[in-house]
Design a protein that fits this description.
Chain lengths: 446, 446
C-alpha cells in the first residue's frame, strides 16, 4: 500500500510566518508528544507512523518546497517534485506515474491520497485504513472520505451519498457539489451530504489508466518532462466527478483546517511562543515570535501577534481570515527559508540612492550538510564565520574555516561551503541585484 | 540671559523606543513645521529660537545622553555633562557653576531652568519671558512657573500662592506641597494651587551662593571633579522650598507630559510611522515601526504598537502607563543608539554553547564624522563596508575603504574610521564578552 501526501500551497494567510517558501504545513507551532514543537507535515507523518496504515509515504510537492521537506523530514523521505505548479490532478497523476514506473509498484496496489495539513486525531487514520480495505474488497473504483459537516460551510466541496445507503459504513456516492452558497449548503446538510476531505483511495492501475489518456510515457523521466501536457484541473473534477463507481466512508472525528490565524491559534502549543511576555490583561491572546528581540503584549483581547523576519502582524482574531489582500505585497522576498542544508534569516536589506543594494543574512548550516558549488553574476558576498567549523571552496581552492574567519567571494567566483560541525555564518551580500535566482550551480566532489 | 535645559531621565516607559541611551525626549516622532519629524528636545530648542527668549542655551545632561544630543542638535550646542547621575539640585548647581566660572557670566545675569520635554505652544515661552522680566524687576529671588491644574493629579508637586495675591499676574508663593493624595490634591485645587512646572528663573549669583555653601571651587574643572560632594536632592527641596522670596507666574495654556504611550500617541505626526499598514478596522490605533520589516495591524482598537531593535510592544492604550515593570529586564542592552558620529542598530545577537558570543550591527556614520581611535580586549570586529567611502586606521596604518571592502580588527588592535561620505558598515563582533564598555580610547590626529 502506498500513501501520497500532497504538499502544495503557498499564500500569505498565515503571514508573516508563512511565505512563498514556507507554507502553513511547515510552521513549527504545534505541540508534539515529546514536549517539543512540530509542524503540520511533521505531525501528519508522525501520525501515519503511529496508525494502522503500513504504507510507504511519497510526498508530492513542488520545487519551492523540496528543501524544507528534506530539512523537516530528513533525507530519506521519498518525494515527487512537479516541474511546474499546475493542479491536484496532474500532481496526483505524476506521483502515480512515479509509483508505477520509477518504483515499479503493481497496478493492483492500493494508493491513498491525502493532504498534509489536516489537524486530526487517530480516528482519522482508522477511517483511511477502512478506505484501503474497501478498495481491496472492490467496494468501488474510488473511495473517498466524507467529513461529517458541523455547519453549512461555503468553503468546502460536498459529497452527496445515495439516500438509500444512509447509515451504512460505506455509502455509494450520488454526486458532488462544489463550494455552494449558504442556502444550497443548508439543503446539502438536509441530504446528509459530507464535506469532501480530499482523501482518496484507489488501485494504482485505476489512476495510471486515466493518466494514459493524456500521456503514454515509456519512463517516469519522460512523463515528468511532458508534465505540461496534463490539464490544469483538480482531481475532484477530472477523476472523482467522472468516476462511475465511487464510495464514501464517513468520518466525524476531530478535523480542522489550520489555515487561518484564528483556527491555528486554537491548537498552538502555547499562548506565547518565542521571546514573549504577555501581561495580565490579555485574554485569548496568542503571540508567536520568531525574532530574537522580545515582544511584550498587554491590554488587548482576542488578538494574534506574529513576528518573523518577513514582518509583524497584530490582528484581532475575527479579522485574521482577511489579511491576505493587505499583506500580499508587503514582503518583496522571503526573509526566512529552510534549505536542504539548514536555514537562513535576512537581518537587513538596504537599497542606496544609486540602486546598489546590500543584504545581511545569518546562515545556519547543519553538521555534514553543504551549500552547493555556485556563483553569482550580480553580487559579491562576505562571509564571517561566527560559530563552528567548515571547509570552503573558492574557485577550486580548499581551505578550512572557523570562528573569526572571513571569506570574500567576488562576482563570478565559484564557491561552496561544507559544515564540519553546526556552522553559523553572517553573510553580507552587495550588488546591483540581490535575488535568490542569481545563481549558477556546478558539481563539486566533497 | 541664559537658558539651562535639563535633559535627564532614562527609564522604559516608552519601551521599546526609549532605552537607557535614548530617553523619551530624543524620539523623532513629532510633526515639525517643515513637514519632517522632530524629537521633543529638537522641538523645545526650535520653540525657544522662535520665542521672545533671546538667551543662550546650555544643556545640562549626563554622559549617556551627550552623544545623542550632539547628533540631534549639532556640534555647536553647549552642554554640561554631570560626571555621575545625582539629582536636579546638583545638576543645576553644576550648570550654574559652568556659566559662572567657565563662561564668565555675571552674577546679575538671569538664568532660566527648564525641562526639555514639555509639549507646549508659544504661550509657554511668553510666560517664561515674563518670568525673566520679573527677576530683572526684582519681584522675587526665585520665580517659577505655575501650571493651572486641570484635575487633582497625584503625579505633580503643587505650588500654593498667597491667597491675597489671587488674580495678580505675579503671585507670591506661600508654600510647596509634594505629590499629594487625591483628597489633598482636591483641597489644593480649592486653594488655587498650581502644578509646579519645573521652570525656574533667578539671577546667577543667587544660585552660585547656594552652591558655595557646599563647594567653594577655584575653577569649573575643580567643581566638576568634586561633583560627588553635592547632596543628592531635588532643586525643589534644596532651593525652592527654602527660598525666602519666591513668586509664581501662572500658565494655563497647552502643557503635556508625553511620558507614556497613551499621552504620546495623541501628538504623533501620524497614526502609522515607518513601514506600516493599518487596516480598515483599527480605530484609535497608532503604530510606530523603526524596523525594516513591515508591520500590519487590523481588528484592534485603542492600541499602540511600537517596534524597534530593542523589542516589540503591543499594548492597549489604557494599560500603556504600566509597562515599566514588565519590560524593565526585557532588553539586556540598548539595541539602537545615536552617537556623535551617527547611529548603530543591533541586527542580531547569539550566545553559543561555550559562552562565546556574536553580535551583528549596522553602523551609519555621517560624512565628516569619525569613530574614535580605540581597542577592545574581549572582542574582534569584522567590518564590511556596504556604502560610502572612508579612511580606516589600524595600529597606525591608514587605508581608504569603499563598498565591498572588509576590515578585520583583532583583539587589542587599535582602530578608527572616518567617513568621507555618509558611510554604512555591517559590523560583526565576536568574543567572550560583547559590551560597549570594553573600549580603550586613544588620540588620533585626522
Amino acid at each position: 500500500m502506498q500513501i501520497i501526501l500532497l504538499s502544495g500551497g503557498s499564500g500569505k494567510r498565515l503571514w508573516p510566518l508563512s511565505n512563498n517558501a514556507r507554507s502553513k504545513q511547515f510552521l513549527p507551532l504545534l505541540q508534539s508528544p515529546d514536549g517539543n514543537v512540530e509542524s503540520m507535515v511533521q505531525r501528519v507523518v508522525r501520525q501515519i507512523g503511529e496508525s494502522r496504515l503500513s504504507g510507504t509515504i511519497t510526498i508530492a510537492t513542488n520545487s519551492a518546497q523540496h528543501d524544507i521537506i528534506i530539512n523537516q523530514l530528513g533525507d530519506n523521505v521519498d518525494t515527487v517534485t512537479e516541474p511546474e505548479r499546475r493542479d491536484t490532478f496532474p500532481a496526483i497523476a505524476l506521483a502515480s506515474g512515479y509509483l508505477s514506473m520509477a518504483k515499479g509498484c503493481s497496478a493492483d496496489e492500493v494508493v491513498v491520497i491525502m493532504p498534509c495539513d489536516p489537524y486530526t486525531e487517530t480516528e482519522y487514520f482508522d477511517v483511511i485504513a477502512d478506505m484501503v480495505a474497501a478498495v481491496e474488497n472492490d467496494a468501488a473504483d474510488l473511495v473517498l472520505m466524507g467529513i461529517t459537516p458541523t455547519y453549512p460551510s461555503t468553503k468546502f466541496g460536498y459529497v452527496v451519498p445515495m439516500s438509500e445507503d444512509s447509515g451504512k459504513d460505506i455509502l455509494r456516492v450520488k454526486r458532488f457539489t462544489e463550494k455552494p452558497d449558504v442556502q444550497r449548503a443548508e439543503e446539502l446538510l438536509a441530504q446528509n451530504a459530507f464535506w469532501n476531505g480530499g482523501v482518496f483511495a484507489f488501485r494504482l492501475g485505476y489512476m495510471v489508466n486515466i493518466l494514459e489518456k493524456y500521456i503514454s510515457a515509456a519512463s517516469f523521466e519522460e512523463l515528468r518532462s511532458r508534465y505540461g501536457e496534463l490539464p490544469k484541473i483538480s482531481f475532484d473534477y477530472e477523476v472523482a466527478e467522472k468516476a462511475e463507481s465511487v464510495a464514501v466512508l464517513p468520518f466525524n472525528g476531530k478535523w480542522k483546517d489550520l489555515g487561518t490565524w484564528n483556527s491555528l491559534t486554537e491548537e498552538l502549543s502555547s499562548n506565547a511562543i518565542g521571546n514573549v511576555v504577555i501581561g495580565e490583561n490579555a485574554p485569548n491572546t496568542h503571540v508567536v515570535n520568531e525574532l530574537g528581540m522580545p515582544v511584550f503584549c498587554n491590554g488587548v483581547s482576542d488578538v494574534v501577534v506574529a513576528a518573523s523576519p518577513d514582518g509583524i502582524l497584530v490582528c484581532g482574531k475575527e479579522y485574521s481570515e482577511n489579511i491576505k489582500n493587505y499583506v500580499d505585497n508587503l514582503s518583496p522576498r522571503p526573509m526566512y527559508e529552510e534549505r536542504r542544508w539548514g536555514s537562513y534569516r535576512v537581518l537587513d536589506t538596504t537599497t542606496y540612492n544609486d540602486g546598489y543594494m546590500s543584504l545581511t543574512k545569518v546562515l545556519q548550516l547543519k553538521s555534514g550538510r553543504y551549500i552547493s558549488y555556485q556563483l553569482h553574476n550580480h553580487r559579491e558576498e562576505m562571509w564571517t564565520i561566527v560559530d563552528g567549523e567548515g571547509v570552503v571552496v573558492i574557485d577550486g581552492a580548499i581551505r578550512n574555516v572557523t570562528r573569526g574567519d572571513v571569506v570574500a567571494i567576488k562576482k563570478g567566483q565559484k564557491h561552496a561551503i561544507k559544515a564540519l560541525t553546526d556552522l553559523q555564518i553572517v553573510e553580507v551580500q552587495m550588488g546591483d541585484s540581490l535575488v535568490e535566482e542569481d545563481i549558477l550551480r556546478f558539481d563539486w566532489e566533497w
